[in-house]
Recover the amino acids of this structure.
């Protein structure tokens, strides 16, 4: 139960901060990571070894998105800290659910900004020409960036509910 409470507090704070500032601070992901290992060493549902594996899986899954500019470093660290909290199996599922939630969020954001057609066309181009992905994603003339913390939070809690 402590694991869920700490996870909810950490992810909730990450969502609020990310939506407001488009950043997830290091102190927050660091605190979540420290709490994850504290719970793991204290006999929580995730052992210390599984916490390390969860951290690695979360990091490895999110890093390619960061390399191409699709996610920020805070998103990568948030997924890694969450992985330490829930372990490697759950973080893999959380990553998949987060990707779906992120896709839905991207469509909603594009609709609200009146850019759905442009966004879908750009996505098609990125799939066809992945070498240009980073430049296109980071282009300052496009309103294509949004907070991904909410998608990570939704994906994580869906993975815990659907696959307890």
């Amino acid at each position: 139960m402590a694991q869920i409470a700490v996870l909810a507090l950490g992810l909730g704070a990450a969502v609020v901060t990310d939506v407001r500032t488009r950043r997830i601070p290091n102190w927050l992901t660091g605190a979540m990571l420290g709490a994850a290992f504290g719970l793991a060493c204290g006999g929580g549902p995730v052992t210390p070894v599984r916490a390390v594996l969860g951290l690695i899986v979360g990091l490895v899954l999110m890093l390619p998105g960061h390399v191409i500019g699709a996610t920020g470093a805070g998103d990568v660290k948030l997924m890694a800290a969450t992985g330490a909290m829930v372990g490697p199996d759950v973080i893999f599922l959380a990553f998949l659910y987060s990707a779906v939630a992120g896709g839905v969020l991207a469509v909603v954001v594009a609709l609200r900004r009146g850019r759905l057609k442009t966004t879908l066309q750009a996505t098609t181009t990125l799939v066809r020409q992945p070498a240009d992905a980073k430049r296109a994603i980071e282009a300052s003339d496009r309103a294509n960036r949004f907070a991904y913390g909410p998608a990570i939070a939704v994906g994580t809690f869906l993975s815990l509910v659907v696959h307890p």
In short: The chain is about 75% helix and 0% strand. Residues 126 and 133 are 6 Å apart (CA to CA). The two ends are 13 Å apart (CA to CA).
